[in-house]
Amino acid sequence: MVSNPVHGLPFLPGTSFKDSTKTAFHRSQTLGYRNGYAIARRPTFGINGDQLSQADLDELAGKAPILTYGQPKQAPPPDFIPAHVAFDKKVLKFKAYFQEDVPISTEEFYRIRQVNIYYYLEDDSMSVIEPVVENSGIPQGKLIKRQRLAKNDRGDHYHWKDLNRGIDITIYGKTFRLVDCDQFTQTFLESQGIELNPPEKMALDPYTELRKKPVRNYVTPSDFDQLKQFLTFDKQVLRFYAIWDDTDSMFGECRTYIIHYYLTDDTVEIREVHERNDGRDPFPLLVNRQRMPKVLAETAKNFPRCVLEISDQEVLEWYTAKDFIVGKPLTILGRTFFIYDCDPFTRQYYKEKFGISDLPPVNVSKQEPPPIKQELPPYNGYGFVEDSAQNCFVLIPKAPKKDVIKMLLNDNKVLRYLAALESPIPEDKDRRFILSYFLATDMISIFEPPVRNSGIIGGKYLGRTKVVKPNSPVDNPIYYSPADFYIGAVIQVFGHRFVILDTDEYVLKYMESNAAQYSPEALSSIQNRVRKQEAPAPKSDNSKQNKGSLKNTQTEEDPGVQEMEALIEQIQKQLKDHSCKDNIRETFQIYDKEASGYVDRERFFKICQSLNVPIDDSLVKELIRLCSHGEEKIDYYNFVRAFSN
């Protein structure tokens, strides 16, 4: 008899029977421990409770259940549940607020309105409801009824995926700030894989918070009696003398002020001290009489800023009489004043009130710095030094000042000298020049009489200019003076050396009248020339016809004759169109009854004026000088040659 009737039956569906003799119901383990190490253990359960071999395990691994048990049956699909049933009465709730401008109120500029935003999962609709506050004066309740809300202009609507904490959404032109949500909303969004932002604090309405404060602030009145102060200190004013030093800034200056402190009501007045012809407008007051703030308070954002006067809410401390001390700076309305003195009444008041007896005045007068010596830049060699220096004095240079008295005394006074050019070139040895020194301006001009067939163009060699002596300093040049011109002197003019050979009669007279400014060498040269003139000339028995041949001979040998011929030729070219009478020679011969060829000087000038001769011309003056014979007579023969055809 078999003890277990179900033993050995195949383990197939429908043939499985409960073994009533089984007492161990634990799950077999695949791991065992031996000596503290985990080792794999084959399962002990199987058909007939026998352990499967490796070959059986490999055979079972290659077999599919579908071959043994057939095609599995597909599980039936779940029942369809519509959205209005699945999400019925499931609503997402968000706490939000929006800001609304208040343009017509003086107590508030904007208000914060707190709302609740509901999102209905049933049909994706939303509504905005504002909790009702009693006595708010604002129509509250349902702001936006339940409906699908447009998200943009493309026709999209808000979805629960677009909602989160800490974001702004715009609905019908109003921007709502979502700050928090309830527990159901948080759980639902997190289950759908949406990461929520941290919650924010709800913004408070400033006007609502202001109304929560107490209506009145009771302040205990002070025991100070303003009437007693007025009756005690009426017409008592402290006077201080102060300066405002603004010299550190551009175009700044140091100005003087008088500060009045009225003990009646602790007000301060600042007056300007005007001086005569100071160029300022006559405004007596810099600051009107008022209380001066010493420490200002940091005003709140909602404090009105358009006020005419400073109120007590803006000031923590006012200036009092103890703040005005002689010798200390004081800052009033951003300007720093230095108090350097006060009047006797103020000294007595400080002595009796504060016990300050020593208030010495402070000397604030500043010593002017020594004038800075102006240094001129080095001379560049162009023009005169005095003329170039004017560019360093003013922006628009002016001509240097002239010695008007010297010009008036020496007007038309010219010293003329005959000079030769000292040059190694042989062609320059016979060249003669006329150096003219103008006493009015200390200028020198050089004229070279043209010589016919000499190959050298004569005329003006140097215009009027001042000539610097050689080896004189550049910054302080030394110019040639009349004392440097005498017979035998060497004059260096811009690198050219001229030797003075002769002078005219006027130079001799000038040197005699001003002998103190000439050197002994110059006076001795003039004396030698006078002796040569006074020596008797050899008499000639030649007839009048030989007179012309003698003059021709002298023309070839005497340089003065060459100079006269050159002057006559130049005058003929320059004055060929001048309206002179043709009978100029006959006129002079009428007055020269002896036919000597000379007339006295006074008669000569009268004849020239009657004949309209340009005696003021420089060339004509030079010709008259060469034709002069002594101090009384003039050789009109050579003079007439210049005006004859």
TrEMBL record:
InterPro entries: DM10_dom (IPR006602), EF-hand-dom_pair (IPR011992), EF_hand_dom (IPR002048), EFHC1/EFHC2/EFHB (IPR040193). SUPFAM superfamilies: EF-hand. One of its GO terms (molecular function) is alpha-tubulin binding. Signal peptide: none annotated. Pfam families: DM10_dom. Residues 88-193, 234-354, 411-515 form the DM10 domain. Residues 579-614 form the EF-hand domain. Its main location: cytoplasm. Residues 528-559 are annotated as: Disordered. Keywords: Cell projection, Cilium, Cytoplasm, Cytoskeleton, Flagellum, Repeat. It is found in: Cytoplasm, Cytoskeleton, Flagellum axoneme; Cytoplasm, Cytoskeleton, Microtubule organizing center, Centrosome; Cytoplasm, Cytoskeleton, Spindle pole. One of its GO terms (cellular component) is spindle pole. SMART domains: DM10 (SM00676). GO terms for biological process: cerebral cortex cell migration; cilium-dependent cell motility; mitotic cytokinesis; mitotic spindle organization; regulation of cell division. Residues 543-553 have a biased composition (Polar residues). It comes from the Eukaryota. Microtubule inner protein component of sperm flagellar doublet microtubules. Interacts with the C-terminus of CACNA1E. Interacts with alpha-tubulin. PANTHER family: EF-HAND DOMAIN C-TERMINAL CONTAINING PROTEIN, EF-HAND DOMAIN-CONTAINING PROTEIN 1. This is EF-hand domain-containing protein 1.
